[in-house]
Design brief:
Structural class: alpha+beta
Largest sheet: 7 strands, mixed
Helix content: 25-40%
Strand content: 25-35%
Strand order of the largest sheet: 3-4-5-6-7-9-8
Oligomer: single chain
Distance between the termini: 17 Å
Radius of gyration: 15 Å
Number of helices: 5
């Protein structure tokens, strides 16, 4: 998928070989909303082994054109994970999280290119009709990114770990937002 002249591919996270890299990403202060600040490397490996074994939750690394890991995305079935019991899921709903690692050399447009690639990847599956997100209400940066790719906030919800902004994006909303 191309976004702002950046092309990414995706591969499943390998909990054993990727745990060190993911640990450096999820424990960085920039990743505070990922809620793994105090995780040890073995905690990260265990968390991603659990995801790898879960039929309703998948973790993928986004790779640059040269194959370097550039970001993390997770997709999940909101009827079974994260949002179970907190909203009325529809057939074709998929939940999503993404994380771009902290960098000393930010690239303008990178994070928007990432979320655009993540959304395009999710919508490559014809069964996906709507993407659901539930970021922390305080995470204003991600709310702006979500809006840029077509998400519409519905309401705030209380999850065990946070107050979240439940938002949705249909395939049509996404296509309209990224072609505008």
């Amino acid at each position: 998928m191309t976004g702002t002249t950046m092309t990414f591919t995706f591969r499943p996270v390998d909990p054993l070989t990727d745990a060190g890299l993911l640990h450096s990403w999820v424990t960085h202060p920039k990743a505070a909303f990922w809620m793994m600040q105090d995780a040890r490397p073995e905690d990260v490996e265990r968390a991603y082994r659990e995801i790898a074994a879960d039929e309703h939750h998948h973790a993928l690394l986004g790779l640059t054109e040269d194959g370097a890991p550039a970001f993390l995305m997770e997709k999940y079935d909101p009827a079974h994970r994260e949002l179970a019991g907190l909203y009325e899921p529809r057939p074709g709903d998929v939940g999503m999280h993404f994380l771009t690692p902290a960098t000393d050399t930010p690239v303008h447009g990178f994070t928007k290119a990432v979320i655009t690639a993540v959304m395009a990847h999710l919508f490559e599956d014809p069964a996906v009709l709507r993407v659901v997100v539930e970021p922390d209400v305080r995470n204003k940066a991600v709310h702006a990114l979500n809006a840029a790719v077509g998400f519409v906030p519905e309401r705030e919800i209380d999850k065990p770990e946070k107050r979240a902004l439940l938002s949705f994006c249909t395939r049509e909303q996404f296509e309209k937002a990224v072609t505008a």
